[in-house]
């Protein structure tokens, strides 16, 4: 028995020795091949915090004095990267979805220079030297060898002119490491036959960023003004701009895709003055057409087409609250135009004041995206009485998720009130009812909902020193008689946006009108909603109430509040 054990151990040791020798011979063989090869493939794995990142390896394809970086998974990439060692330049080639190709040619010596260090390491049988790069506060360590004929790097921003890069470490925790060499196959030669449009680096980076998401243009420098006769086309045509309320509302029926789980939807609205010098209320909204009556009826045939409520003060307020047969507009973005941006830039010249060309408002509207698919009516309102008015452009930006989100619940949305009188110039009343009343709406909440919340947006307007625009007021939200939320909507950062407001009035104390703090808005900004969580909301009939201590009228001046409320939840499928 003892002899048998000794023999087994001896056999095992011989086997291990033979395997180790075979591995060393194989390593020497690969090293010898890679040392002299002018055509080869280098494979790399990536590690994050010491753990290998799943997926096929990144490959560096070297063909004589040219190199091509093949990204992981061998999937078709929008951007391809090449190195030309004859010309000592890199090429980044981007092909857009529409077939357009853009190329950035960049000399090796235009990249950030690395610090050559004395450290050495052995990787795949080669002695590697070390260089360190600092790129936008990132420390990048590069290990490269000069013992090979071939040159290349798996990252064109570092080490292209050093030799063959076999390891890159970013910030000490993200590694790209060569794992082996192979003979290059002829079908791997992928040098482009043509480079398309050659552009500079800023233009190329713009194309790269924009290629990563999908953009749908809704409006393009459409005019929102007052008093211009603009006839509307017949019917409800797709992709045609309609003008309503004397031209202060533009609307368009568009077809929108369904947002995939885990993705994000942003609205980007660009505005500039086309003649109007004042700060104005603006609203981007969707018009629900799911009930017998919709706000589209009011836009087409007058404000009396929608349900109205009568306040204790005797005034009639049209289309502001939900009923069994009517859904108010779904506000996507509340914004405020600055004082005369662009149109008045050259009329107001102050040293050190570099006026903006336009105001850009960008907001994440993903929580509302489930109401924005298929054929949808979108509209933009800017209250003004100017023939030139304003110009606006609107894009919807669809950003893919980092990974597909799996969920068994579907978003649920119910707009329940919106007091912004977007048909102000066609007779819709200002919301002045808070002087004697609270805003009250009763709705029927369906069963099967989770994580219900009220998305609430509020801005105060009217008057000077005594008006609610310039005085903090507490808002209280009640659900079935119980207060569930209270806050004071207020902005104290309006001076930040002075460069958007060339036509703003200046006071004797050095302040500008656009600098003044206001009730949750500033000229040139958008107003963010607050989310009021109603976790224990049960199915059935519920009453919501909004209470605001609205100020009293002073002479010809009065205060009013634009508030909108949308219930959002998750419905199990």
TrEMBL record:
Residues 215-398 form the Peptide-N-glycosidase F N-terminal domain. Residues 1-22 form the signal peptide. SMART domains: N-glycanase_N (SM01290). Keywords: Disulfide bond, Signal. It holds the Pfam family N-glycanase_C. InterPro entries: Cu2_ascorb_mOase-like_C, PHM/PNGase_F_dom_sf, PngaseF_C, PngaseF_N, PngaseF_N_sf. One of its GO terms (molecular function) is oxidoreductase activity, acting on paired donors, with incorporation or reduction of molecular oxygen, reduced ascorbate as one donor, and incorporation of one atom of oxygen. SUPFAM superfamilies: PHM/PNGase F. The keyword Disulfide bond applies. This is GLPGLI family protein. It comes from Chitinophaga skermanii.
